[in-house]
Amino acid sequence: MLPIFDLHCDLLSYLSENSQRTHNDAEIGCALPHLQQGKVKVQTLAIYSPTAAGSTQMAARECAVYQQLLEKHSQQFAPAHTLEQIKAVFNDVSRVGIVASIENASGFCEEDEPLAHGLARLDKMYEQLGRVLYISLTHHHENRFGGGNKSEAGLKKDGKALLEHLAEHHPETAIDLSHTSDDLAYDIFKFIDRQKLNLPIIASHSNFRTIWDNPRNLPDEYVQEIVQRDGIIGINFLRAYIHDTQPAKLLHHILYGINQQAHRHLAYGADFFFTDDHPDESRVPFFFPAHENSSKYPEINQELRDYISRQDIDALSYGNVMTFLEKTWKF
Hints:
Blueprint lengths: L3 E3 L4 H6 L15 H6 L2 E9 L6 H18 L4 E3 L3 H8 L5 E8 L11 H15 L2 E5 L20 H13 L4 E3 L5 H14 L5 E3 L16 H9 L3 E4 L13 H11 L6 E3 L28 H8 L5 H19 L3
Parallel strand pairs: 1-2, 2-4, 3-4, 4-5, 5-6, 6-7, 7-8, 8-9
């Protein structure tokens, strides 16, 4: 089976919300047994918090859980903070490599505190986590940095300051577009170019709007921006972003990306999270059975063999992310 490098899941928020939960609980699609069965060798773990009072405390708890996975469960998890560590874990039969990301900048900066406090907290998080693969400025809704995918706001003053801070202090960290409004994504591109900021671009868990019209999916012009900037697009497994009724549309998203000349820029970003207590029953089932957890990767890749080359499947599974990191993790 091919090794998998997955760009997004919410295991940390699942574990931080209830001390009785463990990383072996099969009820979440990115549980360790699922990861091992699907040969996921590197899993990106998001530090997620909504834009609301207490967002930084929630993110701090998830940072602590991340550290505990590495310190207390070192027989199951290994750091994937360098290219050397990633290559080592590819050959490790028992452990899964992990690397952190930050989903929503509200996790390090409350809405009503000085920005300088939030940026100092962010720098501290880098020390705690060892590596941050990417940061998204927003989640679904608008915050002090810009507009989420359920808003129309663009890049705000604090968002510009954050991009400048990252370019100066953490230029290896990618900017994630998966939860931006269209206006925020446009403004990020424009600001990076105008200020000549050396920042990588990623859409860690987004599909293609031409295949399924959802604001969380990428319009064609932004797909091409990511391709031209040597970025990465992580294919999302949520039904809401694939198709209401047709699980085979997941393959259509992948094939569409290849036809958009993004075959060297596609990856997996399944977006597994705990769904049982989600208040929106209209989204049930959240995942089609064919994509419901990380163990499904071999079957998905096997089905792709009828449509694309082994080289493109290798690239999708892990190769494109590795090429991306070889270019961006040189700092």
